[in-house]
Protein backbone atom coordinates (compact mmCIF):
# COMPACT_ATOMS: atom_id res chain seq x y z
CA UNK A 1 0.00 0.00 0.00
CA UNK A 2 1.19 3.54 -0.76
CA UNK A 3 2.40 5.58 2.17
CA UNK A 4 0.09 8.25 3.56
CA UNK A 5 2.21 11.33 4.18
CA UNK A 6 1.46 13.24 7.35
CA UNK A 7 1.47 16.97 6.59
CA UNK A 8 1.66 19.90 9.02
CA UNK A 9 1.37 23.56 8.07
CA UNK A 10 3.35 26.03 10.17
CA UNK A 11 2.99 29.85 10.00
CA UNK A 12 0.36 31.51 7.81
CA UNK A 13 2.19 34.76 6.93
CA UNK A 14 2.03 33.88 3.21
CA UNK A 15 -1.39 33.30 1.67
CA UNK A 16 -0.04 30.32 -0.27
CA UNK A 17 -0.32 28.21 2.86
CA UNK A 18 -4.00 27.78 2.03
CA UNK A 19 -3.18 26.71 -1.52
CA UNK A 20 -0.54 24.21 -0.41
CA UNK A 21 -2.82 22.73 2.24
CA UNK A 22 -5.53 22.37 -0.41
CA UNK A 23 -3.15 20.26 -2.51
CA UNK A 24 -2.39 18.10 0.52
CA UNK A 25 -6.09 17.82 1.36
CA UNK A 26 -6.92 16.69 -2.19
CA UNK A 27 -4.12 14.13 -2.47
CA UNK A 28 -5.10 10.52 -1.78
CA UNK A 29 -1.76 9.81 -0.10
CA UNK A 30 -1.61 12.84 2.18
CA UNK A 31 -3.28 13.81 5.45
CA UNK A 32 -3.22 17.19 7.20
CA UNK A 33 -2.36 16.20 10.76
CA UNK A 34 -1.83 19.67 12.20
CA UNK A 35 -1.60 23.41 11.56
CA UNK A 36 -0.01 26.11 13.69
CA UNK A 37 0.11 29.89 13.81
CA UNK A 38 0.47 32.40 16.64
CA UNK A 39 -2.71 34.10 15.44
CA UNK A 40 -5.64 31.64 15.58
CA UNK A 41 -7.72 33.83 13.29
CA UNK A 42 -5.37 33.30 10.36
CA UNK A 43 -6.05 29.56 10.46
CA UNK A 44 -9.84 29.74 10.38
CA UNK A 45 -10.07 29.61 6.61
CA UNK A 46 -8.03 26.40 6.47
CA UNK A 47 -10.00 24.88 9.35
CA UNK A 48 -13.25 25.47 7.47
CA UNK A 49 -11.99 24.57 3.99
CA UNK A 50 -10.38 21.28 4.98
CA UNK A 51 -12.51 20.26 7.97
CA UNK A 52 -9.50 20.22 10.27
CA UNK A 53 -10.48 19.04 13.77
CA UNK A 54 -9.84 21.55 16.56
CA UNK A 55 -7.44 19.17 18.29
CA UNK A 56 -5.16 19.51 15.27
CA UNK A 57 -5.01 23.33 15.49
CA UNK A 58 -2.19 24.89 17.53
CA UNK A 59 -0.82 28.32 18.38
CA UNK A 60 2.60 26.85 19.30
CA UNK A 61 4.32 25.12 16.38
CA UNK A 62 6.55 23.08 18.65
CA UNK A 63 3.53 21.66 20.42
CA UNK A 64 2.02 20.94 17.01
CA UNK A 65 5.03 18.98 15.79
CA UNK A 66 5.43 17.06 19.02
CA UNK A 67 1.76 16.10 19.15
CA UNK A 68 1.23 15.23 15.47
CA UNK A 69 4.61 13.72 14.35
CA UNK A 70 4.36 14.87 10.71
CA UNK A 71 6.48 13.56 7.84
CA UNK A 72 6.45 16.91 6.03
CA UNK A 73 6.18 20.44 7.37
CA UNK A 74 5.01 23.26 5.10
CA UNK A 75 6.48 26.62 6.13
CA UNK A 76 4.97 29.94 4.99
CA UNK A 77 6.51 32.62 7.25
CA UNK A 78 7.58 36.03 5.97
CA UNK A 79 10.67 35.78 3.78
CA UNK A 80 13.09 37.16 6.37
CA UNK A 81 12.05 34.43 8.82
CA UNK A 82 12.63 31.44 6.53
CA UNK A 83 16.03 30.60 8.00
CA UNK A 84 14.81 30.82 11.58
CA UNK A 85 11.87 28.53 10.96
CA UNK A 86 13.90 25.92 9.07
CA UNK A 87 16.43 25.85 11.91
CA UNK A 88 13.61 25.46 14.45
CA UNK A 89 11.75 22.74 12.53
CA UNK A 90 14.58 20.62 11.06
CA UNK A 91 15.54 18.99 14.40
CA UNK A 92 12.13 17.30 14.44
CA UNK A 93 13.35 14.99 11.65
CA UNK A 94 10.89 16.13 8.99
CA UNK A 95 11.04 17.00 5.32
CA UNK A 96 10.61 20.77 4.97
CA UNK A 97 8.79 22.58 2.17
CA UNK A 98 9.30 26.35 2.24
CA UNK A 99 7.26 28.90 0.30
CA UNK A 100 9.32 30.81 -2.26
CA UNK A 101 11.60 32.72 -2.37
CA UNK A 102 14.30 30.52 -0.87
CA UNK A 103 15.48 33.19 1.56
CA UNK A 104 15.96 36.93 2.03
CA UNK A 105 19.75 36.64 1.65
CA UNK A 106 22.47 34.21 0.66
CA UNK A 107 23.65 33.74 4.28
CA UNK A 108 20.07 32.84 5.25
CA UNK A 109 19.90 30.27 2.43
CA UNK A 110 23.18 28.76 3.65
CA UNK A 111 21.73 28.50 7.16
CA UNK A 112 18.73 26.62 5.81
CA UNK A 113 20.89 24.17 3.88
CA UNK A 114 23.09 23.51 6.90
CA UNK A 115 20.05 22.93 9.10
CA UNK A 116 18.90 19.94 7.05
CA UNK A 117 22.01 18.62 5.30
CA UNK A 118 22.81 15.98 7.92
CA UNK A 119 19.23 15.05 8.76
CA UNK A 120 18.59 12.66 5.88
CA UNK A 121 15.53 14.77 5.02
CA UNK A 122 14.82 17.08 2.12
CA UNK A 123 14.52 20.85 1.97
CA UNK A 124 12.19 21.84 -0.88
CA UNK A 125 11.25 25.30 -2.12
CA UNK A 126 7.75 25.79 -3.53
CA UNK A 127 8.89 26.97 -6.93
CA UNK A 128 6.19 26.00 -9.49
CA UNK A 129 7.94 27.44 -12.55
CA UNK A 130 10.20 24.38 -12.50
CA UNK A 131 7.31 22.27 -13.80
CA UNK A 132 5.77 24.58 -16.40
CA UNK A 133 5.66 22.66 -19.72
CA UNK A 134 6.64 25.78 -21.70
CA UNK A 135 9.82 26.29 -19.68
CA UNK A 136 10.84 22.64 -19.86
CA UNK A 137 10.15 22.52 -23.59
CA UNK A 138 12.21 25.65 -24.18
CA UNK A 139 15.13 24.14 -22.25
CA UNK A 140 14.86 20.87 -24.18
CA UNK A 141 14.94 22.73 -27.50
CA UNK A 142 18.00 24.67 -26.33
CA UNK A 143 19.78 21.49 -25.24
CA UNK A 144 18.97 19.87 -28.60
CA UNK A 145 20.44 22.83 -30.46
CA UNK A 146 17.14 23.36 -32.24
CA UNK A 147 17.05 27.15 -31.84
CA UNK A 148 20.72 28.06 -31.59
CA UNK A 149 22.72 29.57 -28.75
CA UNK A 150 21.09 31.71 -26.07
CA UNK A 151 22.26 35.31 -26.21
CA UNK A 152 19.53 37.03 -24.18
CA UNK A 153 16.86 36.09 -21.65
CA UNK A 154 14.05 38.57 -20.94
CA UNK A 155 11.71 37.98 -18.01
CA UNK A 156 8.74 39.98 -16.75
CA UNK A 157 6.51 38.85 -13.90
CA UNK A 158 4.34 40.19 -11.10
CA UNK A 159 0.76 40.68 -10.00
CA UNK A 160 -1.59 43.43 -8.82
CA UNK A 161 0.08 43.23 -5.43
CA UNK A 162 0.30 40.63 -2.68
CA UNK A 163 -2.70 41.97 -0.76
CA UNK A 164 -5.22 41.73 -3.58
CA UNK A 165 -5.96 38.05 -3.06
CA UNK A 166 -6.07 35.40 -0.37
CA UNK A 167 -5.62 31.65 -0.66
CA UNK A 168 -7.45 30.07 -3.62
CA UNK A 169 -7.10 33.47 -5.35
CA UNK A 170 -10.05 34.91 -3.44
CA UNK A 171 -10.03 38.60 -4.41
CA UNK A 172 -9.80 41.45 -1.90
CA UNK A 173 -11.37 44.88 -2.26
CA UNK A 174 -9.40 48.10 -2.75
CA UNK A 175 -10.59 49.30 0.65
CA UNK A 176 -9.26 46.17 2.36
CA UNK A 177 -5.92 46.57 0.59
CA UNK A 178 -5.58 50.21 1.68
CA UNK A 179 -6.42 49.27 5.26
CA UNK A 180 -3.95 46.36 5.43
CA UNK A 181 -1.03 47.81 3.47
CA UNK A 182 0.54 49.95 6.27
CA UNK A 183 0.69 46.93 8.57
CA UNK A 184 1.52 44.08 6.20
CA UNK A 185 4.89 42.29 6.28
CA UNK A 186 4.89 42.42 2.48
CA UNK A 187 5.67 46.14 2.77
CA UNK A 188 8.29 45.89 5.54
CA UNK A 189 11.96 45.83 4.58
CA UNK A 190 13.00 43.93 7.69
CA UNK A 191 10.46 41.18 6.92
CA UNK A 192 11.73 40.61 3.39
CA UNK A 193 8.98 42.48 1.55
CA UNK A 194 9.02 43.96 -1.94
CA UNK A 195 8.41 42.79 -5.49
CA UNK A 196 12.09 42.07 -6.11
CA UNK A 197 12.34 39.39 -3.43
CA UNK A 198 8.87 38.13 -4.36
CA UNK A 199 9.51 37.61 -8.07
CA UNK A 200 13.13 38.12 -9.15
CA UNK A 201 14.14 34.64 -8.03
CA UNK A 202 11.87 33.22 -10.72
CA UNK A 203 13.53 35.18 -13.50
CA UNK A 204 17.18 34.86 -12.61
CA UNK A 205 16.89 31.14 -11.87
CA UNK A 206 15.25 30.51 -15.24
CA UNK A 207 17.83 32.80 -16.84
CA UNK A 208 20.76 30.92 -15.33
CA UNK A 209 19.17 27.63 -16.44
CA UNK A 210 18.65 28.84 -20.01
CA UNK A 211 22.18 30.29 -20.08
CA UNK A 212 23.56 26.84 -19.27
CA UNK A 213 24.66 27.78 -15.76
CA UNK A 214 26.92 30.62 -16.84
CA UNK A 215 27.19 33.48 -14.37
CA UNK A 216 26.93 37.11 -15.49
CA UNK A 217 29.97 39.35 -15.48
CA UNK A 218 28.04 42.25 -13.99
CA UNK A 219 24.62 42.78 -12.40
CA UNK A 220 22.82 46.14 -12.15
CA UNK A 221 19.48 46.55 -10.37
CA UNK A 222 17.22 49.57 -10.11
CA UNK A 223 14.16 49.49 -7.86
CA UNK A 224 11.22 51.86 -7.34
CA UNK A 225 8.64 52.08 -4.58
CA UNK A 226 5.62 54.32 -4.13
CA UNK A 227 5.66 57.32 -1.84
CA UNK A 228 6.17 56.38 1.79
CA UNK A 229 6.94 52.72 1.10
CA UNK A 230 9.92 50.92 2.64
CA UNK A 231 10.16 48.40 -0.20
CA UNK A 232 10.06 48.34 -3.97
CA UNK A 233 7.01 47.70 -6.09
CA UNK A 234 8.98 47.63 -9.35
CA UNK A 235 12.49 46.44 -10.13
CA UNK A 236 14.61 46.00 -13.25
CA UNK A 237 17.77 43.88 -13.16
CA UNK A 238 20.22 43.80 -16.06
CA UNK A 239 22.83 41.04 -16.27
CA UNK A 240 25.83 41.59 -18.55
CA UNK A 241 27.45 38.61 -20.21
CA UNK A 242 30.37 38.59 -22.65
CA UNK A 243 27.82 37.97 -25.43
CA UNK A 244 25.04 40.38 -24.45
CA UNK A 245 22.54 41.64 -21.89
CA UNK A 246 19.63 39.86 -20.21
CA UNK A 247 16.85 41.68 -18.37
CA UNK A 248 14.66 40.59 -15.46
CA UNK A 249 11.75 42.80 -14.35
CA UNK A 250 9.37 42.46 -11.40
CA UNK A 251 6.21 44.48 -10.78
CA UNK A 252 3.48 44.79 -8.21
CA UNK A 253 0.78 46.75 -10.01
CA UNK A 254 -0.04 44.70 -13.09
CA UNK A 255 -3.74 44.27 -13.84
CA UNK A 256 -3.84 40.47 -14.15
What does this structure look like?
The protein contains eight helices and ten strands. It has helices at 16-26, 44-50, 61-68, 82-89, 106-116, 133-143, 174-180, 195-210, and strands spanning 5-10, 30-36, 57-58, 72-75, 95-99, 123-126, 154-159, 218-224, 234-241, 244-252. The longest helix is centred in the C-terminal third of the chain and has 16 residues, at 195-210. 33% of the residues are buried. Helix 4 runs parallel beside helix 5. By secondary structure, the chain is of the alpha/beta class. The model has no long low-confidence stretch (mean pLDDT 95).
List the main descriptive attributes of the protein structure presented here.
single chain; 256 residues; alpha/beta; Rossmann fold; Dihydrodipicolinate Reductase, domain 2; 2 domains; six-stranded parallel sheet; four-stranded mixed sheet; 31% helix
Whole-number count of domains? 2
Radius of gyration computed on alpha carbons: 20 Å
Q: What is the CATH superfamily label of the largest domain? A: Dihydrodipicolinate Reductase, domain 2
Query: What is the CA–CA distance across the termini?
Result: 43 Å
Beta-strand content estimate: 15-25%
